[in-house]
Amino acid sequence: MRLVGAFAAKTFARRASAPYHMVKSMAIAPPERLRIAPPDVRTADPTVADEIYAGYFSFAGKTAQSYGASPFALTPPSPAWRRALTGFSWLRHLRSADKALAQANARALVAEFLAIKRFSPEDPALEPAVAARRLMSFFAQSPVLLDGAEPEFYDAFMQALAHGARLLWRALATGRAEGADRAFCAIALAEFAVCADTGRKIAPQVSRLLSAELERQVLPDGGHISRNPQVAVDLLLDLLPLRQVLAARGLQTPAAMMRAIDRMMPALRMMQHGDNSLALFNGMGVTELDRVANVLASEDTRGAPPLKAPYSGYQRLIAQDAVVIVDSGPPPPPEFSRAAHAGCLSFEYSLGPERVVVNCGAPSPPHEDLRDMARATAAHSTLVIDDRSSARVAPKDARGGRGGRIVAGPRHVEAERRDASSGTTLMLSHDGYARDFGLVHAREIVLSADAATLSGCDRLRAAEGGRREAGEIEFAVRFHLHPRARATPLGEAVEVALASGETLIFEAEGAFPQLDESIFFAASGGARKCLQIVLRGKAAPGAEVSWSFQRV
Predict the structure, then answer these.
(1) What is the 8-class DSSP label of residue 284?
(2) Quick check: is 195 in a domain?
(3) Does residue 139 sit in helix, strand or coil?
(4) Residue 37: strand, helix, or coil
(5) Is residue 85 situated within a structural domain?
(6) CA distance 145 to 156
(7) CA 545, chain centre distance (Å)
């Protein structure tokens, strides 16, 4: 009811302020010239330029062939494909081809988009996040697009920049842009203020708006408020070019922006495994290693990764080549939870470049229909009761625009860390099951100092004031294994063989380890089958199961 009331108040305020901001946005005039173009720090692939010239447009796991027609007139194979097409981030591939033909093709494709007179109100091209990406892509590729351009194209391009800035201004002012999208919209507007000669009129307001969003979204420990590592990567990929153009023009970088960048860099390294991929929590899918490397290459100082992020809710255990990353936080605020997972107290475990225990991760766009499954507690390496998730997700068709948000979940998540010469111990608990089952999940994780053993214990205890559901219910402690790890039952133990040739023995006390099938969504080539070790028992106060991974 609180969420419904807050949403109603926000909707009323947005509608009441819409006329004012409509008039205000019209003051953003098309620029006569651009002062500077920000760099694009995303990796480019010249071979994509050849595919696009041949009429093949491959985005978000889908490919459409234009057969000589405009790709913008095609029926999009998916909304994600349309978002990628009209976001124009792919222009960097044509620029990297460094051929006059590819550059002419880039200008022709942009001209086809600019010639569109009317968009359907439901067109993903009008979404604030897509409009922001398009504006930033146009600025970044403007040297190629405008070099030798005809006056008609030049004028249409400048008009498109102003139109995009107006759209973003209204989206931010009226609340149409929500969650992390607000930061991306503010960054795009900031680029307009710095790069366009007409942007100086809105520069002070945009600077304050960007600073406010970064202060709100980037937590003191450097994590993003959504708790999704991918959002931090994307933010840095856009903030770093903005910082460069500000410095190139001799303008002062907002203090909030400098703080956000300085905090996010080490927080991102905290979430890395030995293979440089990012831990799979709260919407993180396939790690694009080149993007992470490009971001971290800009870090001014590089020390050891932080071991804890109390505000964003993560813990890192490290001993020699062993790394354990643990989700020790509650769900993010509803506005930022559309991609969040119900994986409280789940962990991932790696040995050098080999991933051992993982979460299933977020599926890529072609498997969008499996996203709800991937968000469930059962898709994480933690304890689940009665196959129900510890957090509740609003249905996608929920009224009031709240579909996909986490609307209930753990409120009290405790994490205590004990560092000793023998190893590191985490004492954790959450009350996500208190409401339905009257139970609290407590978990202990211990990584020995010599990295030879990772052990733990999962317990259930009675929640204060909680109510017990009638009938017997079962818990399951799941350990999803990476697809490269092979598991073989050995009596009351499980042998886990890694691709490196190393072997671990999994043992448990209080439950018999079983091997079940699982699925790993975050593989670079698409979803892959894998195995999971499962410990089952009766869910009741006092239930306890101990487990360990021993290197041999």
Answers:
(1) -
(2) no
(3) helix
(4) coil
(5) yes
(6) 12
(7) 33
Q: Cβ atoms within 10 A of the Cβ of 190, count?
A: 26
Indicate whether 338 belongs to any domain.
Answer: yes
pLDDT tens, residue by residue, 53-87? 999 999 988 999 999 899 999 999 999 999 999 99
Q: Please give the Cα distance from 333 to 272 (Å, whole number).
A: 24
**C-alpha distance from residue 36 to each of 196, 248, 249, 390 (Å):** 8, 9, 8, 49
Q: Among 181, 212, 241, give the residue marking a domain's end.
A: 181
**Helix (H/G/I), strand (E/B), else coil: 228:** coil
State the total domains in the chain.
Answer: 2
Answer left, alpha or beta for residue 345, where phi above 0 means left and psi between -120 and 50 means alpha.
left
Exposure string over 446-472, b if 16+ CB within 10 A, otherwise e: bbbeebbbbbbbbbbbebeebeeeeee
Report the DSSP beta bridge partners of residue 520.
528
> What confidence score (pLDDT) does residue 400 get?
44
DSSP label of 381 = S
Tell me the residue type at 423. Answer: G
Helix, strand, coil percentages, rounded to 5, for the chain: 40, 25, 40
Residue 140 in tokens: 């970044």
**CATH code where residue 360 lies:** 2.70.98.70
**Spatial CA neighbour of 317 closest among 222, 445, 442, 457:** 445
Q: Could you tell me if 458 and 443 are in contact, meaning their C-beta atoms sit under 8 angstroms apart?
A: yes
Q: What is the extent of the structural domain holding 368?
A: 309-551
Q: What residues form DSSP beta bridges with 15?
A: none
Dist. CA 503–CA 49, nearest whole Å: 45
- With a CB cutoff of 8 Å and minimum separation 6, the contacts of 187 are 132, 136, 210, 235, 238, 239, 242
pLDDT for 23 equals: 44
Q: 3-state class of 88 per DSSP?
A: coil
Where does residue 525 rank: exposed (0-12), middle (13-18), buried (19+ CB within 10 A)? exposed
Q: Which of 158, 181, 204 is the last residue of a domain?
A: 181
- Domain-embedded: residue 227: no
Q: What is the pLDDT of residue 21?
A: 46
- Tell me, what DSSP letter sits at residue 380? S
CA dist 482 → 359, 458, 485, 550 (Å): 9, 22, 5, 17
The amino acid at 52: I
Tokens in use for 498? 């890694």
For the entire predicted model, the pTM comes to 0.91
- C-alpha–C-alpha distance, residues 310 and 328, integer Å: 8
